[in-house]
């Protein structure tokens, strides 16, 4: 019986986790393809296999690009080849054009080259293909026996690489952060359509504040931080404004935030002086976006911290209980002494603040204040919350569910791109999957709940 | 407790790249061992290209996508097209996805000539060549491996010439439906004005004056509204230059409703199918037309030259050609569409 109860809890409250895992498995299967290792350990293996297969008496040219990762690859390869006894005639870090010049130079110097040791990416450069090599061999006897050596490939889903998974989290962090605020609003049986526009407002306010009042090009990191805070405060105040109209004048939140959505978007365009983004010259503008903690982009760390804080607040504080109470039954909440007006205003303020943070992250990402930022994001944010199992009727919902909801949407989008599905079909699939996800959630509640009574 | 069963699963998903098989063949192409007589030309290297299109709602970019796919396939490239939907955030995400997929080259129509910079820099850092098409990126510090686009200024000049042809000796008032958000459209208007200025300098009586330059949104609906308002404001209007076909068609609708089709002529731009059809029907006088099919082909040529390490032209601007009713009557594309 106990076990049964846990399974019920698992399905009712965390059914979406299974949807997410299922999606990940499905997309993984769809994106299995050849992976081409380019890291130092691949270089080590390549060096030892090359020496083993071709012997020590070989002249090797190491070829890679100028990226940091490639430099590490090339350095390791050179060390290991030399340790193994092979002769490295040179390391060419560059592009196809510089490689061609290098090979021609080696040919002219009559320096015999037996192997070009490289990774898969550069091995596909046409300057190294068989006809191009044949042409060079006919010109230069030193290149007559030129062959290519590269690390072995293996099959693995492109979806399931650390790079891609971190990318998904990073790309969806602004939406997920806004979804935290939206979850609170929706739990109180409200809605906030203004988040996308507030995001743009925050972006433009931050940009114009920096350019006009904080010294433009000379703005320091502290000035950037100040501009970010100003932008977020503006958005929080917009949220307070929405909350006040909703509570004191009893206007439905849908209408209030629809109005705010248009006002904020219009203000963004006015402040930006048109549809063009406001250019930011401060050097440290990208610091927030490009920084990382233990190799994880700080945007992701911020998102996870905010989810943890929101989870704790919603489950272990009086404020959290108030939010659920207001959404469950506003009159009952008022009668039992919950400060309904204060809670509602706070909830819209938090939602505005979250949108402001998303706007600030956008500014830091693109280095410009875009009045077009966050267009239609309100719908994606609401979708994330709803897919995460929060009821639009209010009173129920979980912060953790929202996190999963945001991930599901992000994974679907990424997976469809990875699988090469064209954009029209993507829309259909995306919409259908949202419907299915929500439907599964509803069905489970219906099937499982009555049994527990 | 049970609610944590997913934890190991997620962890398992996060752990990656451990399944590589141990020892295996290292040397590439066992059959071709550098000997000159054994060249194997018809085994193209497999490669992947990621194309992030400005917006697939506009058929122009669909044509670029098709031509990229066709030209790419001929050289062993598989082209994946994604729709940025005019949203630079979406486009930046798509470029990051392309980098994760390890494509050999990235092609894009920048949705924002400045804000797309950081995404292109990421591709630069990953060592993947980036080609731009139609629109250029002007962000600082980005490396673009090649660009191909339309010579929009020259196109604007052709549009101006067509307008001079329409108004001839008499001259008259002209309305411009512009779209200043896109640099390409600014260039079109600049070219248009250059020809009108030259014309006005050479004539005393038949001057052509631009009475208003308003935003046509590059869109049929916005173009319609903008034209309708200005038709009321300017009763002597003789011509309209719209920077693309949708806004030109919007203007035509407005002129029709104002019942002034007999006195006002339209010059459009682009030469998309709907525009050509309108030229055939006499709704639009002429279009400087672009050649998106050549763009896909041109990008592939640049990529091939890049990969071969050969010298190539970094920026290619394809001139437009003026397309009028007699061209439309001979156009096989239109006959097929009917």
What does it look like?
With 453 residues, chain A is α/β, with parallel strands linked by helices. Chain A folds into two domains: 40-152, 3-Layer(aba) Sandwich (Rossmann fold), CATH 3.40.50; 162-452, ABC transporter involved in vitamin B12 uptake, BtuC. Chain A is 68% helix and 8% strand. Chain A has helices at 2-30, 40-54, 68-83, 96-108, 120-123, 130-139, 162-187, 195-213, 221-248, 253-272, 287-290, 298-316, 318-328, 330-335, 340-366, 377-387, 399-418, 423-452; strands at 32-35, 59-64, 87-93, 115-117, 147-149, 154-157, 278-279, 292-293, 296-297, 368-369. Chain A has a four-stranded parallel beta sheet, with helices on both faces. A two-stranded antiparallel ribbon of chain A has the order 1-6. Chain A has a two-stranded antiparallel sheet with strand order 7-10. In chain A, α3 (68-83) links the parallel β2 and β3 (87-93). In chain A, α1 (2-30) packs parallel to α17 (399-418). The longest helix of chain A is centred in the C-terminal third of the chain and has 30 residues, at 423-452. The mean pLDDT of chain A is 87. The radius of gyration of chain B is 25 Å and the shape is elongated. A six-stranded parallel beta sheet of chain B has the order 2-1-3-4-5-11, with helices on both faces. Helix content of chain B is 43%, strand content 19%. Chain B is of the alpha/beta class and 338 residues long. The model of chain B is unreliable at 1-43 (pLDDT under 50). Chain B contains twelve helices and twelve strands. In chain B, β6, α6 and β7 (208-215) form a beta-alpha-beta unit. Chain B has two domains: 47-144, Response regulator (Rossmann fold), CATH 3.40.50.2300; 152-289 and 325-337, Rossmann fold (3-Layer(aba) Sandwich). In chain B, α2 (59-73) runs parallel beside α10. At the A-B interface, α1, α2, α3, α4 and α6 of A face α1, β2, α3, α4 and α10 of B.
């Amino acid at each position: 019986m106990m076990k049964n109860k846990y399974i019920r809890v698992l399905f009712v409250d965390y059914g979406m986790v299974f949807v997410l895992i299922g999606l990940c498995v499905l997309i993984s299967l769809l994106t299995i393809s050849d992976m081409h290792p380019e890291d130092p350990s691949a270089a080590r293996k390549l060096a030892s296999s090359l020496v083993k297969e071709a012997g020590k008496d070989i002249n090797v040219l190491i070829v890679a690009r100028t990226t940091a990762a490639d430099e590490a690859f090339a350095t390791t390869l050179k060390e290991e080849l030399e340790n193994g006894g092979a002769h490295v005639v040179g390391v060419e870090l560059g592009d196809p054009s510089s490689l061609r010049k290098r090979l021609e130079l080696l040919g002219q110097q009559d320096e015999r080259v037996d192997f070009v040791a490289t990774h898969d990416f550069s091995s596909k450069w046409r300057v190294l293909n068989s006809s191009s090599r044949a042409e060079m061999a006919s010109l230069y006897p030193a290149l007559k026996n030129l062959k290519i050596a590269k690390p072995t490939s293996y099959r693995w889903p492109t979806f399931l690489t650390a790079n891609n998974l971190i990318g998904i989290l990073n790309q969806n962090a602004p939406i997920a952060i806004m979804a935290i605020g939206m979850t609170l609003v929706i739990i109180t049986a409200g809605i906030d359509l203004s988040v996308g526009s507030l995001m743009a407002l925050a972006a433009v306010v931050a940009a114009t504040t920096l350019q006009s009042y904080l010294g433009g090009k000379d703005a320091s990191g502290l000035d950037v931080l100040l501009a970010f805070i100003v932008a977020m405060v503006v958005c929080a105040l917009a949220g307070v404004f929405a909350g006040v109209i909703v509570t004191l004048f009893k206007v439905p939140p849908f209408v209030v935030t629809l109005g705010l959505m248009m006002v904020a978007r219009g203000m963004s365009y006015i402040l930006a002086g048109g549809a063009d983004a406001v250019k930011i010259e401060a050097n440290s503008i990208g610091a927030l976006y490009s920084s990382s903690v233990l190799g994880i982009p700080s945007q992701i760390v911020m998102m996870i911290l905010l989810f943890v804080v929101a989870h704790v607040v919603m489950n272990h504080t009086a404020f959290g209980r108030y939010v659920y109470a207001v959404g469950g039954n506003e009159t009952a909440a008022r009668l039992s002494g919950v400060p309904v007006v204060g809670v509602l205003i706070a909830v819209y303020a938090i939602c505005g603040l979250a949108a402001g943070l998303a706007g600030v992250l956008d500014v830091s990402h693109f280095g410009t204040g875009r009045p077009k930022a966050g267009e239609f994001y309100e719908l994606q944010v609401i979708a994330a919350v709803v897919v995460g199992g929060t009821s639009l009727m209010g009173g129920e919902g979980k912060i953790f569910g929202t996190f999963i909801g945001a991930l599901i949407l992000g994974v679907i989008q990424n997976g469809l791109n990875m699988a090469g599905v064209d954009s029209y079909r993507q829309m259909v699939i995306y919409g259908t999957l949202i419907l299915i996800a929500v439907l599964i959630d509803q069905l489970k509640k219906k099937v499982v709940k009555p049994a527990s009574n | 407790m049970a609610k944590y069963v997913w934890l190991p699963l997620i962890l398992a998903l996060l752990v990656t790249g451990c399944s590589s098989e141990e020892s295996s063949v290292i040397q590439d192409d066992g059959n071709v061992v550098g000997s000159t007589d054994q060249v194997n030309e018809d085994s193209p290297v497999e490669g992947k290209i990621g194309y992030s299109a400005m917006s697939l709602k506009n058929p122009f970019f669909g044509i670029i996508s098709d031509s990229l796919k066709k030209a790419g396939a001929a050289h062993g490239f598989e082209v994946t097209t994604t729709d940025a939907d005019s949203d630079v955030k979406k486009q930046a995400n798509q470029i990051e996805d392309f980098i994760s997929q390890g494509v050999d080259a990235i092609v894009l129509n920048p949705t924002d000539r400045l804000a797309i910079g950081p995404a292109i820099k990421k591709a630069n850092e990953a060592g993947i060549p980036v080609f731009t098409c139609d629109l250029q990126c002007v962000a600082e510090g980005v490396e673009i491996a090649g660009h191909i686009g339309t010579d929009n200024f020259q196109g604007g000049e052709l549009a101006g010439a067509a307008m001079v042809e329409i108004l001839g000796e008499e001259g008259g008032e002209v309305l411009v439906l512009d779209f200043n958000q896109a640099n390409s459209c600014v260039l079109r208007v600049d070219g248009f004005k250059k020809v009108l200025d030259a014309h006005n300098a050479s004539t005393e009586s038949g001057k052509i004056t631009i009475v208003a330059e308003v935003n046509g949104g590059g869109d049929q609906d916005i173009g319609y509204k903008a034209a309708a308002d200005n038709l009321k404001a300017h009763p002597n209007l003789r011509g309209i230059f719209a920077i693309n076909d949708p806004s030109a068609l919007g203007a035509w609708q407005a002129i029709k409703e104002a019942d002034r089709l007999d006195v006002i002529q339209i010059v459009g731009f682009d030469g998309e199918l709907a525009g050509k059809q309108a030229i055939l029907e006499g709704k639009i006088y002429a279009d400087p037309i672009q050649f998106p099919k050549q763009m896909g082909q041109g990008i592939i040529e640049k990529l091939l030259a890049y990969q071969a390490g050969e010298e190539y032209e970094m920026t290619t601007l394809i001139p437009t050609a003026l397309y009028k009713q007699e061209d439309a009557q001979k156009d096989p594309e239109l006959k097929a569409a009917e």
